[in-house]
Fold this protein.
Amino acid sequence: MENIRNKRILIVEDNVDNYTLILRLLTELGIEGCEWVSSGWKVAEEADGQGAIDLVLLDINLPYEDGFSVHRKLREHPRLKNVPIVAVTANADEATMQRAINEGFDGFIGKPLDPDRFPQQVYRLLTGEHVWEIA
């Protein structure tokens, strides 16, 4: 298994319970570099204050600005334009996944997150694989 301990993940999630679950599962995977942004409208600004980011886990259902428009902003940001961005959403259906594909996301993970599968999904993403999974 490739060492992913030093990877940094930006989690864009407005629900504190979902963030807590994601953080716990990533910590079990050995990843300690997690940053949390609770809304999409300040994610680019927050990312400027961080070191290098290896992966963005982006909720689609965010207040004020949805994950699709946040994704477009991140793709325009000089530091983040090449970072893999994965939709993590309760809108776990074929239509939403197809839209994520069309808009250039790098992966899709449906909620509710499966605690047995999520760490492996993130590991695969961090090692260059694509993950497109509704459930």
Observations:
- Strands lie at 8-12, 33-37, 55-59, 85-89, 107-110, 131-133.
- The chain has a mean pLDDT of 91.
- The longest strand covers residues 8-12.
